[in-house]
Specification:
The complex is a heterotrimer of chains A (257), B (207) and C (510). Chain A is an alpha/beta fold and 257 residues long. In chain A, 50% of the residues lie in helices and 11% in strands. Chain A has two domains: 2-120; 133-239, Rossmann fold, CATH 3.40.50. In chain A, α6 (87-93) packs antiparallel against α7 (97-109). With 510 residues, chain C is of the alpha/beta class. The chains are: A alpha/beta (257), B alpha/beta (207), C alpha/beta (510).
Chain lengths: 257, 207, 510
């Protein structure tokens, strides 16, 4: 299958190893990966901060950039949820009926990584090897908007060498929430503190999730505490094999470059 | 413009011309197909879960069972005159010497220790007794002020679920749906029984 | 973030149309200077203090986790929960679509059964009507059933100004009233107090514990505290001549009112006094008697986590020989029609005040209800209060959410609260007359993110953040606002040397 990769603005700019791992993983599973060069952002941050008019050209650019793609995969539950639930709505409100229909059609072809692997490709064992103690945080949008359910856990359970430990109160938000983490930084920090306490209680080396944004938040907190527990995206774990850990994969605490 | 006209006019402005035509899906359960015996078991389980006591009896043993229920609620040796009964309660259910409710001021009912009433319907799934202000159920104050409430539920009165109960009830009657003794969760969201309503609820279930 | 793709797209509003202040589409919002819908501080400011109150955090954490577990258990027992939820949602939608007709039908039915219906445009008018009605009875005190509508309009203060004492009779409202405090939760207004604090309030304020001969033996067991409230209120119930209540539901078809409660204080108020005055928001209607079969299943399980609450009372007008012989129903607008005018926001009027969204909200659990500054706290408050007052009067509330979506999942009538929050953020942004620095940044970013070449340049500029890091893996912890909000408690990674798209292009020879 020819798969178009949507890296997302955040991963592309500050966590390139996540997109690279996604590409390596899909290639290893026998698929051709293309990276449409016009891609930038899905528009979620603008919409969720109240700039829905300003989001219109961003969404339009996204729809243009992926117009020719047969299937689109992205390593972000939150961005895929925005593509599914917000893009057409934002365009319709602006009177862009034709573009909204295109956005809906594109959303149909766009998949979050774990859903693509399990539902579209029908694999749970992707041949990964990752000899670490890992706990999984289900991010809110992947959990409640995309309903990814236990797909990421199915994938993690099939990884050789991986010791999966359950995260207490896993379904509680980490407190990121996009600009919430800045506009309400005290409340966000209080939520993060409880999330970190639960992560640390597992004595995991690695906290993983399907969203680089939430991981940047949790990882930023763990790094500030000098905790030694690091955050690694699900794609990076699944891309790792006996032959090589995923390219550029960090083994240092939390958010090192 | 009167407030009435103004509020109605605001609503019309707010809704505009395009009013959605909404179809209400009613694909939830409207009947509980379980046999009567099983529904009675569910009712008992739910009543007891919410700290009501349940006594069982046959149609001929109601009077004696009501007396036992009052033993449960008031302790042995209770005074029959301290028990008030709804006016439509059959003679055979009443303790001898009990007081029948009359047109006395409602607040005077607070002087009684216990009340005996029938019910209009009982809902198994939620452990609910519905009193409807009829002579059998009594006026609302009679099942409220005395601290112990004894209700007799007859066999044909038990339904499975809320949707089965409402059609049996008169929407214009003053209804009281009772599920267990009065309770509160206002302190640390922990449920404790017994606040302003009767602190003891005893149900006599007739088979 | 929305999850209701089938919702029709709202009509775009003219740019620059007034949305804030006092009107929405020309419809008045709740007036300033009366009632309790506005706080005196922004949410982040109020939350900052609440977050530092360790006792509050412990009390809220304990109470909300208790109720979450109870709710999950009893909701899990119902195999057709989702069907009931969708029916509840549709019933509310259909009610709103015919609200004018249904209100007139309700008025006819209540009147035909011996009740009197009054209409109030806003809080001031409702307070004046109720005060006049109480004065007409000659009473100088009333007993009250817990009611959000009367809290919203500040009725107790209005009565007090007229020399009438209002006794709150719900246990939690009593705790708040005796403690000279403000409610912090829709269902359990004293949720922020623990048993020891409640004991202290009771010992200090209840007449039964005063005086040299008073028995001050009051353990902090919830059961004993409830008993103290029973003793405190018993005599007040028996002497009361006027009661004031809210209503959970009103059935248009039959004129039936319903109050859902637990303690029996509601029954006392609805049964014993001669006069009953019910204040009800115009959105509390349901069309038919049968519709209660849906809401009486949804509400108790969602609110107290019980299969059924201990007492539900219904009445229609006046019943000779049973209960109050004089009944007044006050129908309250106070900004509700302005909410109704917003095709996205009107869904907030579907709320049945169960408070499940508060109990599951990670923000509410940590900040408590007072931070929201309104009698309607939590997620539903964050969408309802700004709409009732006009968004500019509660501008920080739509942002008081991480959009985690737990509220939407828990809502028994499936109100898409996150989508309304996002919508109100946009209403706020679009109402700004001056350009804010934030708007400048978002517009610039919008331009960059919609032009790929400009976006690559912007990414490269972001990469210059490396210079700040001076070779360290994280950026310095002290950065200027607004980034300081992040870096006070979290590290920021140093941007990588190369973006993913650059690396990919390099590898693939473009």
């Amino acid at each position: 299958m020819r798969v178009a990769l949507f890296a997302t603005c955040l991963v592309d700019t500050v966590a390139p190893q996540v997109a690279m791992a996604t590409a390596r993983l899909l290639e290893r599973l026998g698929h051709e990966v293309v990276v449409p060069p016009g891609q930038a952002c899905c528009g979620q941050m603008h919409v969720n901060t109240g700039y829905r008019r300003e989001a219109v050209p961003i969404v339009a650019n996204h729809v243009r950039a992926f117009a020719g793609a047969e299937v689109v995969v992205s390593p972000s539950g939150s961005c895929v949820a925005s593509i599914h639930h917000q893009q057409a709505m934002v365009l319709r409100r602006a009177g862009e009926e034709g573009l909204a229909a295109e956005a809906e059609a594109l959303a149909e072809r766009t998949h979050e990584l774990s859903q693509f692997l399990v539902d579209v490709l029908g694999v749970t064992d992707v041949g990964a090897y990752y000899p670490h103690r890992v706990t999984y945080h289900p991010t809110c949008h992947s959990l409640r908007l995309l309903r990814v359910g236990d797909r990421p856990l199915q994938l993690l359970r099939a990884v050789r060498g991986l010791d999966l430990v359950e995260l207490p109160a896993a379904e509680q938000c980490c407190g990121f929430g996009g600009t919430f983490s800045i506009k309400n930084s005290d409340t966000s920090t209080a939520m993060l503190t409880d999330k970190m306490a639960n992560v640390l209680s597992t004595h995991a080396e690695v906290c993983t999730a399907g969203d680089a944004s939430c991981l940047m938040h949790i990882g930023g907190g763990l790094s500030r505490l000098r905790s030694g527990t690091r955050t690694v995206h699900l794609a990076e774990i699944l891309a790792s094999t006996e032959d090589a850990v995923s390219p550029q994969q960090t083994t240092r605490p939390a958010v090192s470059a | 413009m009167s407030a009435r006209e103004e509020v109605l006019s605001r609503i019309r402005t707010a809704l505009g011309e395009r009013r959605p035509d909404v179809v209400v899906p009613r694909d939830y359960r409207t009947a509980d197909e379980r046999p009567a015996e099983q529904l009675r078991e569910v009712l008992v389980d739910r009543l007891e879960d919410y700290k009501a006591s349940v006594l069982h009896c046959g149609p001929d043993e109601v009077g004696a069972t009501v007396a036992a229920a009052l033993d449960t609620g008031l302790g042995a040796g209770w005074d029959p005159a301290s028990v008030v009964v709804a006016p439509g309660v059959p003679a055979g259910w009443r303790p001898e010497g009990a007081t029948e409710d009359d047109a006395r001021p409602a607040v005077e009912l607070a002087a009684f220790a216990a009340t005996l009433t029938g019910v209009a319907v009982a809902i198994a799934e939620t452990g609910t007794l519905v009193l409807d202000g009829s002579p059998l159920s009594g006026r609302r104050a009679v099942s409220l002020l005395p601290d112990c409430l004894v209700c007799v539920v007859e066999a044909g009165q038990v339904v499975g679920s809320v949707p089965e109960a409402l059609p049996r009830l008169d929407p214009n009657a003053p209804l009281t749906m009772i599920s267990g003794p009065s309770a509160t969760s206002d302190i640390e969201l922990q449920r404790v029984e017994g606040v302003h309503g009767p602190r003891t609820l005893v149900v006599v279930l007739v088979s | 973030m929305t999850t209701a793709p089938e919702r029709p797209a709202p009509t775009p509003l003219a740019p620059g149309a007034p949305r804030s202040g006092t009107t929405f589409l020309g419809l008045p919002t709740a007036p300033r200077g009366v009632g309790h819908l506005r706080g005196d501080r922004s949410f982040p400011d109020a939350a900052r203090d609440a977050l530092r109150d360790g006792q509050l955090r412990a009390n809220l954490g304990h109470a909300t986790s208790t109720i979450r577990a109870k709710r999950a258990k009893v909701v899990g027992e119902v195999p057709d929960w989702e069907e009931l939820r969708q029916a509840g949602k549709a019933l509310k939608q259909s009610t709103m679509a015919r609200l004018d007709e249904l209100l007139v039908q309700l008025e006819d039915q209540v009147t035909a059964r011996g009740g009197t219906v009054h209409w109030a445009r806003d809080a001031d008018e409702a307070n004046a009507i109720v005060t006049r009605l109480v004065q007409a009875t000659g009473a100088d005190e009333v007993v009250k059933v817990k009611s959000m509508a009367t809290q919203e309009i500040g009725l107790n203060e209005a009565l007090e100004a007229a020399g009438i004492t209002a006794h709150e009779t719900d246990l939690a409202e009593l705790i708040v009233q005796l403690g000279d405090d403000a409610p912090s939760h829709i269902l359990v207004p004293a949720i922020h107090k623990n048993r020891a604090e409640i004991r202290e309030i009771f010992l200090r304020t209840m007449p039964q514990f005063q005086g040299p001969d008073a028995d001050r033996d009051l353990p902090d067991e919830p059961r004993r505290l409830a008993m103290a409230a029973r003793t405190h209120l018993r005599e007040r119930f028996l002497r009361a001549r006027v009661a004031i209540s809210g209503a959970n539901f009103a059935v248009a078809e039959t004129g039936t009112l319903a109050v859902v409660e637990s303690e029996g204080n509601g029954r006392m108020c609805l049964t014993l006094p001669q006069t009953l005055i019910t204040v009800m928001g115009i959105e509390k209607l349901v069309p038919t008697w049968r519709d209660l079969e849906v809401f009486l299943q949804l509400l108790p399980r969602s609110s107290t986590g019980e299969r059924m609450n201990p007492y539900t009372s219904t009445w229609a007008g006046v019943t000779p020989g049973d209960g109050p012989q004089e009944f007044h129903l006050v129908l309250l607008d106070n900004g509700r029609t302005a909410v109704l005018a917003d095709e996205v926001g009107r869904e907030a009027l579907h709320c049945i005040r169960c408070s499940a969204c508060l109990n599951v909200c990670p923000v509410y659990e940590r900040t408590g209800g007072h931070s929201y500054g309104s009698v309607y706290p939590g997620p539903i408050g964050a969408v309802l209060s700004p709409q009732l007052t006009g968004v500019e009067d509660n501008a920080s509330l739509p942002y008081a959410s991480s959009l985690c979506g737990a509220c939407y999942d828990a809502c028994p009538v499936a109100i898409d609260i996150p989508s309304i929050l996002v919508h109100l953020r946009a209403e706020h942004v679009e109402a700004q007359e001056r350009t804010t620095p934030e708007a400048v940044a978002f517009r610039a970013l919008s331009k960059a993110m919609s032009h790929p070449r400009l976006w690559r340049l912007t990414q490269r500029a972001a990469g210059l953040g490396r210079l700040l890091a001076r070779g360290k893996p994280t950026l310095p912890p002290v950065l200027p606002p607004p980034v300081s909000g992040w870096t006070r408690s979290r590290d920021l990674p140093t941007p990588p040397r190369e973006t993913f798209t650059q690396a990919w292009a390099r590898e693939h020879g473009r």
